[in-house]
Amino acid sequence: xxxxxxxxxxxxxxxxxxxxxxxxxxxxxxxxxxxxxxxxxxxxxxxxxxxxxxxxxxxxxxxxxxxxxxxxxxxxxxxxxxxxxxxxxxxxxxxxxxxxxxxxxxxxxxxxxxxxxxxxxxxxxxxxxxxxxxxxxxxxxxxxxxxxxxxxxxxxxxxxxxxxxxxxxxxxxxxxxxxxxxxxxxxxxxxxxxxxxxxxxxxxxxxxxxxxxxxxxxxxxxxxxxxxxxxxxxxxxxxxxxxxxxxxxxxxxxxxxxxxxxxxxxxxxxxxxxxxxxxxxxxxxxxxxxxxxxxxxxxxxxxxxxxxxxxxxxxxxxxxxxxxxxxxxxxxxxxxxxxxxxxxxxxxxxxxxxxxxxxxxxxxxxxxxxxxxxxxxxxxxxxxxxxxxxxxxxxxxxxxxxxxxxxxxxxxxxxxxxxxxxxxxxxxxxxxxxxxxxxxxxxxxxxxxxxxxxxxxxxxxxxxxxxxxxxxxxxxxxxxxxxxxxxxxxxxxxxxxxxxxxxxxxxxxxxxxxxxxxxxxxxxxxxxxxxxxxxxxxxxxxxxxxxxxxxxxxxxxxxxxxxxxxxxxxxxxxxxxxxxxxxxxxxxxxxxxxxxxxxxxxxxxxxxxxxxxxxxxxxxxxxxxxxxxxxxxxxxxxxxxxxxxxxxxxxxxxxxxxxxxxxxxxxxxxxxxxxxxxxxxxxxxxxxxxxxxxxxxxxxxxxxxxxxxxxxxxxxxxxxxxxxxxxxxxxxxxxxxxxxxxxxxxxxxxxxxxxxxxxxxxxxxxxxxxxxxxxxxxxxxxxxxxxxxxxxxxxxxxxxxxxxxxxxxxxxxxxxxxxxxxxxxxxxxxxxxxxxxxxxxxxxxxxxxxxxxxxxxxxxxxxxxxxxxxxxxxxxxxxxxxxxxxxxxxxxxxxxxxxxxxxxxxxxxxxxxxxxxxxxxxxx
Length: 924
Description:
- This protein is mostly beta strands.
């Protein structure tokens, strides 16, 4: 499918996502043209013919601003809204209206019914203050007109160009016409192309002599072919159209000093293997006669998927931006070239979103003048709430940019972050001083208005003004009148000097489109910027993807001589053994900062997902060990694999041979060897067993059965602590012995000798609770008020499906301190996390006198990563770090090591999993 990365058919920039033009129905997302609720009328059944004179709309006379407010009583407690002017009642089966601006003139146009069976293009000229002039009929078109653009014209006269497509018996036709600033046609409409292919994009670029019109025709077998034709100052063709380039998949056009420039994407398979294709980003310049100047200049190539491209003119250079999809994370890439397109002036592509957790290009916008920087907009793929993204705005550099580390740097060092809704694509335009943004977002009055709730405002179209330093100076919701009726759709942001115009529509049927004029004024609404974090709140510094494969079910991380080593297991893989589907166990070597320093090493593809995975370092010697469960001779067996510091296998043993099922492995180094614990059903019930192996994986202790109780134990955790007579190993697990029929477990702990796994006392039930208790996690003592020799313990009190978050106080995460006998020291700390929903996973790590806690919290629609610090004089509350991309039902394994939180995630709506690391500044 072809990718359009151009301006919207509405006349403004926006959606760069995949789209296709279907017969009689044009689909787009919310954004500049996405008010194509209006275009969607083209998909409705034919209605009865109406009088053509009534279809031109309500803008037949100038509207006196004194007549506003116009439709409903005004609430006096609200300040006046920006003035809005009725423009047109859009009839069914219409396309548009779309807005264009040239200096102090503006014009909208739409395709509407002109009596059966034909349609008309209606122009709607607009005064500088936003009031409409008389509409005009520009041209008669067929009822099969499907797409239209309105653009400011070139030359010295204040004029516009309208281009549109009609479906024909054997394809499509493209026509153009020039229009004066008063909306009257400058010349008869001219058909410039007729093709059997689909026309999927049109752009008209102004030049000193007129315009250059470019379009793409989608073919069935070779992508798209880009055509161009020169137009004169009247909007009439000057010459014949020609093919500029063939077989392209993405494109974007921008004006140059004397013509147009086209950024293009092409993709070529390697050795006829479409899965191994190289994408090329190239730059082609056209003169004012729409002739190519030389051959395309290659800006960059990528073996990863590229689906969008944008280009902006910034001072004497052109800046290219695109999203590079694929592992480890999608990134926004940038490159520059000078106005002459010389290869020597090219700055190589660089990422500007490294370690952001994933990013996607939104727009690249040229500055107003030669000395004004443009702006690049990108959004994070992580989020703080479902349906919300963080939009980043950074100034585009005037000259080349690249630091010594190879990452792109941004000139001026200032930027903005806005929290916007994911429905639609923001529109961004340069202002005389700063930038304007039109996006869907949540805001309410500031200061609050008495009696007006502002707990969870509904997202609605809103204008945001930023100054030249990217500080928000004005946040203005788009209202359709002087009441509090907010627009449901807004588009076509265009500005001249400090003032802007926006087209907007409410929930009326038929749709009434209005012009809203926005001028600078004292801000009265809350800015859509992220709230400043609490001084004590954990703060995310970076998010990195360490591994990607199938969906992951568990992970474990350990420090090997100060360097992290990560082990993971997938939910399943393609390998099959004895008729079952096996899982893949991998080890990923990381560097000191927690980033991947090499490829993951696969230890096996025949593991059992329910067996889990555990990794533990050795002390005094290199490397570590990984425990996992495989299937041997028809039953499950514990395996221990010795690995070096790079995760490569050096030895492997099958530790168990008894019949039955085996699961929930755990591993810890305890003075001269590893303690291995697991759950085994060899005697009927699932009981906890433990043993010890030396550095060569030789068994040096007998297998010890830790439990002997009804029900199946699960979720084993181990921790080795120094003791007076040698290491002491704590073992914790979930045990349903009090209600084996229901399987409702409590958390139990015991201690064993680190030398030979001899029990040091009976098991202890930590706390009898009503909910199912599971997933215990252990950390060294002294935090949380531990007595000497104790440990910290955390676990989950599981909420059943459908539990009411408002009243289910017994569910959540529990964090407590145990004395050396395994008894609670005081009451445990209970938390439900940083917001609605319930915790589903927990990890803890002791740093000095503080306990770092990470939680996975699941809501009805979302899944979040929360964090908090416990210890000292103040008990902290949890803080939300960000939302994961996977669904709320996703099982998330989590671990903490130093400043890193490790967790599994997945691409939203996908079966592709990934292991990620959030680098956190814990503040204490």
